[in-house]
Amino acid sequence: MSANTIKPYLRLAGLEPLVIRPETNFVNVGERTNVTGSKKFARLIRENKYEEALSVARQQVESGAQVLDVNMDDALLDGVKAMTTYLNLLQSEPDIAKIPIMIDSSKFEIIEAGLKCVQGKCIVNSISMKEGVEKFIREAKICKLYGASVVVMAFDEQGQADTLQRRVDICERAYKILTEEVGFDPQDIIFDPNIFAVATGIEEHNNYALDFIEATRIIKQKMPLAKISGGVSNISFSFRGNEPVREAMHAVFLYHAIKAGMDMGIVNAGQLVVYDEIEPQLRELCEDVIQNRREDATDRLIQFAETVKAKDKNEIKNEAWRNNSVEERLKHALINGITDYIDQDTEEARQKYPKPLDVIEGPLMDGMNVVGDLFGSGKMFLPQVVKSARVMKKSVAILTPYIEAEKEERRLAHLAAGTTNEEGAGAAKILLATVKGDVHDIGKNIVGVVLGCNGYDIIDLGVMVPADKILETAQKEKVDIIGLSGLITPSLDEMVHVAHEMKRRNMTQPLLIGGATTSRMHTAVKIAPQYDNGVVHVLDASRSVTVAGSLLSKEQKPGFLDTIGKEYQKLRDDFGSKKTAKQYLPFEQAQENRVAIDWKNYTPPVPSFTGTRIFDNYDLNELTNYIDWGPFFIAWELHGKFPAILQDEKVGKEATKLFKDANELLKKIIAEKWLTARGVIGFWQANSNGKDSVFIYDERGQEKVRLEHLRQQNKKAAGQPNFSLADFVKPAVTPANEKSKEAADYMGAFAVTIQGIEPHIKKFIENHDDYNKIMLQVLADRLAEAFAECLHERVRKEFWGYAKDEHFTNEELIKESYSGIRPAPGYPACPDHTEKYKLFNLLGGEQATGITLTESLAMYPASSICGWYFAHPQSQYFGLGKIQKDQVIDYANRKNMPVEDVERWLRPVLEYDA
């Protein structure tokens, strides 16, 4: 290579160039100009003290930062404006602007604003494939257009890489796309393979540091010109508040990561310590944690960390708590992580309680519940909780031999009696999952928390879980019970499939069924016959503990399942007899008995526009006025009408506390802009065919799409119609059977969603704060419903305008006192989910709505609602009931679908077995 050849080094620049050569030492990226990482910087920016905030950047440069990370991601800030203002000011300060800028944001609009401000060559942090390759390529091209290098997060459509192999695989995939499709120079690609916290007390996290280091080594071998970066402070997140320990962990981690090939990292340049100058004992303990060298590494570092924190405090040991009852002493020990007396206190409790298990289920669980509350409220840090868990484990270890001895006694008793004893050691494992195609999990989460608080080991597989994964995990983990959840009707078929597969695999675990669309009848008729070892419908979380206890008790299980079996057999018998007893009309006769509407004297109202209108970032404050709080309390299994429930003698106190917590979180959600509301409405000229089809026309009067509806088929009393939604749209022909312009009617559609919940849910999960996690999910659902109600009111009064003078209270809106309806595909009047395809196409698809349809046509985000708008004053909600095969065949022909496919989607409403 000649002396004039430009070598492929990463070349950056502020006012001065920064070339990252092979011999270049680790590049420090200053982190304090980050509103999420520095309280001081965040305060200055929020108070518009931008010039004063430049001092933070100056301090980072003076401390040795070679690149400056600038982040303005704060819910209370206008990120674009803040980034633009700060970078423009910063560029006028030569002593700061001399180093390159790293524009850091999770919102690409903020990144693009920053790219317009910086001089030289900057770094964009970051882009990823988490929202698909198309968006990744689009953003990468924009970065390349501005001449920026890019940080690529190890994140794809399946989520953040948390294993060694996924880190490497995602980086390789991104590298190939960037170099081959976008045209990036390899040296302008910087990978961030995800630095996660270690020493969290969760065993799966113990290898996170080693996995990052090894991933760095492999990536550098496979893609030698690419660079490696990461947020170093993440590694010590468990010890936030204890800076000496955090600084030591950073130094130890970097010592190994740099040797593996890490080129740069986001650090506090003023707080890096020299590896060799770390206090020897602390350095050794950090090495144990970072390299995962011993099982008790986390516990030992926690113990040492407490001594570091206490060095400057003249604490006097207070032993007064030793004078309390054994229950209070155990609680105190758990909350404060004190193991000194746990042996004697556990033994005293064992002597006091009838069974050793009672000690775990009583005072120990009471203490751990307090710890959970303190941690959820931010009054305890994660290492302290780990210490509490260690106290719990130590106590349980003391009790375990006695529990095992009792089990052995029972085993021998079974042996003597000739019965079978199948008890196993340890907490019973219960696997929970929302089935394939379904995204709803609030109920499942509540059940998991309730069961977990009662001592069960919960394995939660999340949402959209295929049957094979559920059953393979159940067999691998040797779980004792499997619980399935689902909200949409296709989930019912998936549950039947899971039960069938359990029988095929000769599994023995009982199967619990729960979710909004499930019922005892469906469980008895469709699911239970598929599996012989116990299928139980669980109405709500409060029943789950009793059901699980009965199924896991060798004494109670046979009688419990026998009783359930008899109940379900009776339900099947009743179902069979009802089928024969009910009378149905031939489909043609049902069509003739349509709703009688005087179309001749009806003038259809004309909407203010046709086509679609998008409402992005709708004001959440406005939506709070439309919240129906009734379903909120039902989700928490507190039953009663709102607001009377707040004064209820039995649940009023808890309901009031819950309502207060909900409103506090709601205020935080709105003030900090956690969630955003997005909606789309549309109106089109439409006519029915006088039967069950509705034609939607484009602006030229050409047929755009044909909607198919189902009609009630049960025999009605004289004068009662067999309803179909198509009845509420004016037929395309006049009584004289001639097409007429005056016959034109209109139909509307809508879709609303609440977006942005994921990072906050993730945060609550990381904080083990199930209470607020579930609260957030329930509130998001309430906001989605409120959004739908709000837009429907605006449709009636403003956009369609057929009820301009309408004035209803929120209570009257909840009672649906208004004119017109908004039925949703999948609900009683229109149970066919496949019509959602047409609805979403009319509204502009995923791009316009922000909603993704799963294979079972559930909507994601889960807090989403869609439906049709009907304006006719006689339109009303109704339940379809059961339908017969002649209608199914006609419907399949109209939809050009195989009858078998239609039957699969409509199975819950079929009058016959299919």
Brief summary of the model shown:
With 914 residues, the chain is an alpha/beta fold.
> Percent range for helical residues?
40-55%
Strand order of the largest sheet: 11-10-7-6-5-4-3-12
Which value, in Å, is the CA radius of gyration?
A: 32 Å
Taking the alpha carbons of the first and last residues, their distance comes to 74 Å
Q: On the 0-100 scale, what is the average pLDDT? A: 86
Sheet-strand content, in percent, reads 5-15%
The low-pLDDT segments are 310-317, 375-383, 734-741
Question: Which overall shape is indicated by the principal axes computed on the Cα atoms?
Answer: globular
* Beta strand count: 25
For the sheet with most strands, the description reads: 8 strands, parallel
- Count, helices: 32
Tell me the structural class. alpha/beta
SSE arrangement:
Layout: E1 10-13, E2 17-20, E3 27-30, H1 39-46, H2 50-62, E4 67-71, H3 79-90, H4 94-97, E5 101-104, H5 108-115, E6 123-127, H6 133-145, E7 149-153, E8 155-156, E9 159-160, H7 164-182, E10 189-192, H8 208-222, E11 227-228, H9 243-260, E12 264-267, H10 280-290, H11 297-310, H12 326-336, H13 342-352, H14 356-376, H15 382-417, E13 429-434, H16 442-453, E14 457-460, H17 467-477, E15 481-485, H18 490-504, E16 511-514, H19 520-527, E17 535-537, H20 541-552, H21 557-581, H22 587-592, E18 611-618, H23 620-623, H24 630-635, H25 652-671, E19 676-688, E20 693-697, E21 703-708, E22 745-755, H26 758-766, H27 770-799, H28 810-814, H29 836-843, H30 845-849, E23 852-853, E24 859-860, E25 864-869, H31 885-895, H32 899-906
Parallel strand pairs: 3-4, 3-12, 4-5, 5-6, 6-7, 7-10, 10-11, 13-14, 13-15, 15-16, 16-17
Antiparallel strand pairs: 1-2, 8-9, 18-19, 19-20, 19-22, 20-21, 22-25, 23-24
